[in-house]
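your task:
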Amino acid sequence: MGYLRTLKDHPYLTGFSIWSYNDYRSNYKGTPESGFREWGIVDQYRNKKAAYYQLRDIFQYWQQE
């Protein structure tokens, strides 16, 4: 997540995209036994994961002058 802090240094960038907001069910090969791809910043029940708080801190950093 550290590289996200550097985006503030590039005024020509207007944003970025979170690829997976929440964990999701999948039948794709390599999916864990739980059946969920665990890539989100919240889990399948929308409980906040560590990445949620890391991203929140990045957003707060960007708001600083």
User: Anything to note?
Assistant: The two ends are 20 Å apart (CA to CA). Residues 7 and 13 are 7 Å apart (CA to CA). The first strand starts at residue 24 and ends at 25. DSSP finds two helices and two strands in the chain.
